[in-house]
Amino acid sequence: MRNIATSRLAFAVAGALTLAAGAAMADEEADLVINGETEMTVRTDAPAHLQDALDTIYSGWVFRNDDTQMMQADDFDNPGMIFVDQAMDAWAAVDGSEGKSCASCHEGPESMAGVSATYPKWVETAGEVRTTWQQINDCRENRMGAKPWKITGGDMVAMQALLAVQSRGMPVNVAIDGPGAETWEKGKEIYYTRYGQLELSCANCHEDNYGNYIRADHLSQGQINGFPTYRLKNAKLNAVQARFEGCIRDTRAEPFKAGSPEFVALEMYVASRGNGLSVEGPSVRN
Amino acid sequence: MRSLKVTLAAVLLTAGAAVAEDVAPEKVVFDEYGAVETSLTGVPGDPEAGREVMSSKKIGNCIACHAVAQLSDVPFHGEVGPELSWTGESRTEAELRGILVNSKKTFEGTIMPAYYKTSGYIRPGEGFTSKPAQEPLPPLLSAQQIEDTIAFLMTLKDQ
Q: Which of A100, A101, A280, B106 has its Cβ near the most Cβ atoms within 10 Å?
């Protein structure tokens, strides 16, 4: 009796696997080398602060299907790069009352190397933890006399993609100690809170179940080293905090707003879970 | 005549909303293992309706997390929860009722949502709209949908 049940179980599991395979399985062992030259760290030891929860951290790239993986391996195939080109123009374009562009103060975008790898971080002059969009809008408003960009809007996300490219391949290295530690703790608490009528936390899906399918979705660790991400689903670049809003909405909850202190804290915490993975943005996801 | 009709309709509506015979979510009695002995409606479940509850993304969407061999005609079964293809052999109706009403009473801290619960949520939203919702919320499944799902789960066995 028990044996029959067991063998039936094996059969049914195989059935489920076949179904999953129908959805085009990911090659979870694949390595990512961009343009045949920039080697990316898509899997590595978990940072010390995570070691009681995870041994290894993985880029979301690992869990995507072969076609999506390949699109990111070559800049000519990566639709996100179009927005990087647009941001190059914006970088040099004078805007606002002061007659300045980004280039007036920062020279070329390569001066931004390392920025995406370490943000969100404590900014001493501001006395708070900030994400790159806060710094970008600070420059726009206070140095250029220009209107701030919408946090998850096209201009902002494209500029973040341009910044990410400058750090591409560098390891994410978000500080969790020092004056930002309190914000980091707050982000951690949000990560483990079970929101909404479905009572699900980020950890329920991305820590306890990465690698598993949830209906047709192959769950990743919900890392943000690849942001901004070009999603095939909506054919545009997507901001980190827009993704957070979507994931919390899907628990039948009222998400925090993009730009809220809660999401800045969560972004800092989630970024630090990826310490050691390569900055990948703009990445390609489904 | 017209006003009589309206009154009658109103009475029927009220009766429908209160659903006199249903055990209300906050009145459900669990035993020490999290099982619920008493039917929520007193009306036997319809396994065909239960099959729909489990398969449909718009209703229970149980196969988002569970693989069920008997539902192999429906695409994309999840891997988050255990296989349910033998549930009818291994579980009693009372156990299943408890797991559906609020699985956390059976499996502490489980990821599985509670399907017949109306309050105690953090930042609850109105469905998937991102808008805030006031508790008590409508439960994820109605009392009869729970009974229907139990009836379907009881058919999952060696035939």
A: A280
